[in-house]
Design a protein that fits this description.
Belongs to the enoyl-CoA hydratase/isomerase family. The chain is α/β, with parallel strands linked by helices. It has helices at about 25-40, 60-65, 70-85, 105-110, 135-145, 145-155, 160-165, 180-185, 190-200, 205-225, and strands at about 1-5, 10-15, 45-50, 50-55, 90-95, 100, 115, 120-125, 160, 175. It is about 50% helix and about 20% strand.
Length: about 230
């Protein structure tokens, strides 16, 4: 289900199950994790095939979960994939073109940069079927859009268009061609990209973060030819 291509310094990972709006089965989650871990390029573009980005978890697979233990294991599986995205050395760019629902939103939230086309829509739709976003949704959504917006979006399950997603900071740009954004980022120094991602994702004590920032600057400086 995961198609891997390369475009210069950009690895393109495509969720390729358009007949199910790229909904993810347990096996597909494992394949996505492996594809993210295996990417050597400095930038990875994550996108969906067809008219959707990702509908989240395959609801047939969710319905087949046998008991509480199986349900918790499935949630942890999705969390592991989101963590692999967040902790990858590559910069992950989510290219949302069409619908992102539930787990699809949560995978995008784990990415470093989220861009949308004008056709993109977003919904944390778990509440509408009696569930919640369990691939890091209740953790990352308030971190990205703030507590109040996260409560509204998650409790209502309402659909956001690209402009509203941009306004609340769920995406950073609305563009016609997300690949151009990935190429723009990939045009920068790979070591600097890795260092910036690591430093921006550092959630330690402020003084420690500033010391690590200075050390990263010095390391990059030493590798430059002046």
């Amino acid at each position: 289900m995961i198609e891997t291509d390369a475009d210069g310094d950009v690895c393109i990972l495509t969720l390729d199950r358009p007949d199910r709006r790229n909904a993810l089965t347990p096996a597909a989650l494992d394949d996505l994790e492996a594809a993210v871990d295996g990417a050597d390029e400095p930038v990875v573009l994550l996108r969906g095939a067809g008219s959707a980005f990702c509908a989240g978890a395959d609801l047939d697979a969710v319905a087949d979960l046998a008991d509480r233990e199986a349900a918790e294991s499935f949630a942890r599986r999705g969390q592991r994939v989101a963590r692999a995205i967040a902790e990858a050395e590559s910069v992950l760019v989510a290219a949302v073109d069409g619908a992102a629902r539930g787990g699809g939103v949560e995978l995008a939230l784990a990415c470093d940069v989220r861009v949308a086309t004008p056709a993109a829509t977003f919904a944390e739709s778990g509440a509408t079927i009696g569930l919640l976003g369990a691939w890091g949704g209740t953790v990352r959504l308030p971190e990205v859009v703030g507590f109040g917006e996260a409560m509204d979006v998650a409790l209502s399950g309402r659909v956001l268009d690209a402009d509203e997603a941009l306004r609340m900071g769920l995406v950073s740009r609305v563009v016609d061609d997300p690949r151009a954004v990935a190429a723009e980022i990939a045009g920068n120094d790979p070591a600097a990209l890795r260092a910036i991602k690591t430093r921006l994702r550092d959630d330690g004590d402020r003084d420690d973060r500033e010391r690590r920032e200075a050390a990263a600057f010095a390391e990059l400086h030493a590798d430059l030819e002046w």
